[in-house]
Amino acid sequence: MSGETDLAKLLAGLDPELHAGEYVFVTSPDRSTPPDVEPLLIFEEPEGRTLVLPRERAEAAGLEFAFPSAWIVLRIHSALEAVGMMAAISTALAGAGISCNVVSAYHHDHLFVPRDRADEAVAILRGLGRDGAR
Q1: pTM (2 decimals)?
Q2: Predicted local confidence at residue 131, as pLDDT
Q3: Are 23 and 53 in contact (CB under 8 A)?
């Protein structure tokens, strides 16, 4: 299953979905993941393990965290080799002063934006979709 590569089709089909809740980033320099935390994402870096998880799980485990954010899934199946989609998204969000951390998975791209700007970010993404449909 390869996914879409055409930029106009990608932007027209973004179909952003805002998940409920608040998500945070945690770092574990010793590369451990506390039991029962069940992160949404684990990524290994030379400096340590990064976890992305719901804020309530981080708080329950007593973990220090950063970047309380909203999770937006772009429901279009973008190809991993697609060119330009993230650049268009980043440019549009940056133009509005909205920071964004992106995770590209096999089927979809996932955006983490400041929780208080989530609705605005979704509106901008939907606008890109309308512009991409032209």
Answers
A1: 0.90
A2: 63
A3: yes
